[in-house]
């Protein structure tokens, strides 16, 4: 399956793009996706501990099992207000 | 619980918001807060903040917060406006109003929504130094990240 990944805020600058696509085996988790993303965009790897992950419009963690049609967003801590 | 949410690039029209207030006769407390862009960010002078936002998720997360607020059963109304795009120093980026029967509930609810917003609502700000300031909004400030709807 192919999973679109969007980078928000300064993560897009670090990744060098606002969006990418990751191809994964069925049953892959967000954690597996992150490993692939960090191979593709090494500057993001150092920010792993502060990275927030959403699938669609809900927060998820590394253990979430991705499904075809899911869309992942990665972004830094939020700063509204 | 009545609710109103707006995430907008337009300046926050506080007089209009105040004029459209609605509160039933049992409500004794109206608390509103306006968050204004400061001239210093991290000790450096700035001209503005550029707010970017993952709008579909921000709307969803705000409504989840409002759902939790409604479950308390003590708030009659919440209205919240968050401006995105370039917001100059001195202008408001956030406006929130809570209507409740008593002031303690209203103050607490207003504070809680702001605190939770800063924890879960995907909005980010980028300082704009004075030398980079101009009248045109930043092209990447309003969700130019390609992303699907919810």
Walk me through the structure.
The complex is a heterodimer of chains A (81) and B (150). A five-stranded mixed β-sheet of chain A has the order 2-1-5-3-4. The N and C termini of chain A lie far apart (37 Å). The radius of gyration of chain A is 12 Å and the shape is globular. Chain A is an alpha+beta fold and 81 residues long. Chain A is 21% helix and 26% strand. The mean pLDDT of chain A is 97. In chain B, 28% of the residues lie in helices and 35% in strands. By secondary structure, chain B is α+β, with helices and mostly antiparallel strands. In chain B, helix 2 runs antiparallel to helix 3. The longest helix of chain B is centred in the middle third of the chain and has 18 residues. Chain B has three helices and nine strands. Chain B has one domain: Aldehyde Oxidoreductase, domain 3, CATH 3.90.1170. At the A-B interface, strand 1 and strand 4 of A face helix 2, helix 3 and strand 9 of B.
């Amino acid at each position: 399956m192919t999973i679109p990944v969007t980078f928000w805020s300064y993560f897009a600058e670090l990744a060098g793009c606002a969006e990418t696509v990751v191809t994964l085996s069925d049953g892959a988790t967000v954690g597996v996706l992150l490993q692939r993303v960090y191979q593709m965009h090494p500057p993001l790897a150092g920010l792993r501990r502060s990275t927030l992950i959403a699938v669609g419009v809900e927060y998820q963690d590394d253990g979430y099992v991705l499904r075809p049609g899911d869309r992942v967003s990665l972004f830094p801590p939020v700063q509204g207000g | 619980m009545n609710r109103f949410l707006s995430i907008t690039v337009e300046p926050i029209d506080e007089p209009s918001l105040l004029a459209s207030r609605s509160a039933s006769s049992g409500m004794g407390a109206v608390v509103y807060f306006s968050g204004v862009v400061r001239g210093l960010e991290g000790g450096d002078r700035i001209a503005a903040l550029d707010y970017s936002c993952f709008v579909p998720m921000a709307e969803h997360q705000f409504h989840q917060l409002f759902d939790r607020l409604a479950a308390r059963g003590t708030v009659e109304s919440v209205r919240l406006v968050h401006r995105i795009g370039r917001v100059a120093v001195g202008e408001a980026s956030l406006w929130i109003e809570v209507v409740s029967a008593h002031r303690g509930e209203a103050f607490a609810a207003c504070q809680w929504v702001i605190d939770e917003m800063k924890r879960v609502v995907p909005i980010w700000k980028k300082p704009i130094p004075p030398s980079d300031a101009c009248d045109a909004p930043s092209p990447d400030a309003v969700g130019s990240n390609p992303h699907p709807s919810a």
